[in-house]
Task: inverse folding
């Protein structure tokens, strides 16, 4: 076997050649002192690179910084959810104020007609899921609480209105 | 990493905070070190590591169950690559500001003052072209094979082999002779 060059020895050391070649290279190493010297130098270089990166200074405050940044991100996500909930509730209140609730059965019939009962059910479940999410948020204690309170007041207000026959007469 | 890595990842994906914290503690230094060599700046690497972890948290449902480490290194590489591209643009628009930033990096004198081969290799690594230094760090620190490195750097195994060889040759050339290992 002719002495392989440093490119091939690098590949050999990185175990990126097939088993047959690996065995041939290993056998060559046993009988060639020049290649042994080269391989030993390459190994030393590889170990030194590994050691240099391993001993790279890692700032002590890295984890704190990451955790602080994460907390900020979690707050941002939370605020987005609260914003969406409040927008939904505002829309609900506006619809209520404009006495548009009588449109609901019509919308339901349209969904039934166009998308079938499955879609209507899916939408209903989505609404329930949304309410549960808002409820869970409120239980955790957060800015969601006002949203949940607002939802409760709105529901009570609408319920009261219906009881009085407000929307029936609308 | 722990034996039950897959379980931790699954829990982290579903938003379990302790599992996410475990992943963060385990991988923050790894992300930082890779970013440190790609960006050649400790401060930028720290910011990049924090940004990547935040992205990991926000898109936790995209964390793969298998091959988490190569995936994370790919995310880190892409993030740092974007920063380097922005730096290039910044260098063209605001050359004075860019020079000021570059001057903050440790110099060869500082590395020589350490009179330590490791410090010189650390200095030498950041002098290499982006792909070569990335390949060297991934291979000799993270112990990844050529295929995994290729998937991170978008290259074939043969190209990775070439980058590694060239990187090591250049490292040998740029490190002062008296401090060089004998090959």
Result:
């Amino acid at each position: 076997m002719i002495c392989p060059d440093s490119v091939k020895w690098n590949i050999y050391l990185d175990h990126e050649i097939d088993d047959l070649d690996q065995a041939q290279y290993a056998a060559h190493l046993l009988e060639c002192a020049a290649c042994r010297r080269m391989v030993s130098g390459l190994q030393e270089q590889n170990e030194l690179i590994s050691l240099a990166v391993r001993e790279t200074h890692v700032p002590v405050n890295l984890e704190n910084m990451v955790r602080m940044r994460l907390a900020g991100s979690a707050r941002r996500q939370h605020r987005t959810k609260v914003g969406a909930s409040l927008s939904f509730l505002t829309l609900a209140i506006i619809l209520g104020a404009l006495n548009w609730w009588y449109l609901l059965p019509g919308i339901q019939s349209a969904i039934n007609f166009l998308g079938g009962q499955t879609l209507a059910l899916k939408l209903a479940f989505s609404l329930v899921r949304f309410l549960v999410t808002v409820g869970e948020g409120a239980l955790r204690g957060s800015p969601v609480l006002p949203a949940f309170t607002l939802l409760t007041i709105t529901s009570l207000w609408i319920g009261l209105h219906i009881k009085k026959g407000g929307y029936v007469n609308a | 990493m722990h034996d039950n890595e897959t379980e931790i990842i699954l829990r982290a994906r579903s938003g379990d905070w302790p599992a996410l914290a475990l992943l963060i503690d385990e991988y923050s230094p790894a992300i930082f070190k890779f970013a440190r060599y790609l960006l050649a700046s400790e401060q930028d690497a720290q910011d990049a590591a924090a940004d990547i972890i935040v992205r990991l948290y926000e898109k936790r449902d995209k964390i793969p169950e298998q091959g988490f480490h190569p995936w994370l290194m790919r995310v880190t590489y892409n993030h740092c690559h974007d920063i380097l591209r922005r730096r290039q643009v910044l260098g063209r628009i605001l050359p004075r500001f860019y020079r000021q930033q570059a001057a903050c990096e440790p110099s060869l004198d500082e590395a020589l003052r350490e009179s330590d081969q490791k410090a010189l290799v650390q200095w030498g690594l950041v002098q290499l072209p982006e792909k070569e230094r990335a390949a060297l760090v991934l291979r000799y620190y993270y112990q990844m094979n050529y295929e995994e490195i290729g998937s991170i750097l978008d290259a074939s195994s043969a190209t990775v082999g070439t980058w590694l060889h060239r990187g090591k040759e250049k490292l040998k050339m740029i490190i002062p002779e008296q401090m060089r290992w004998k090959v």
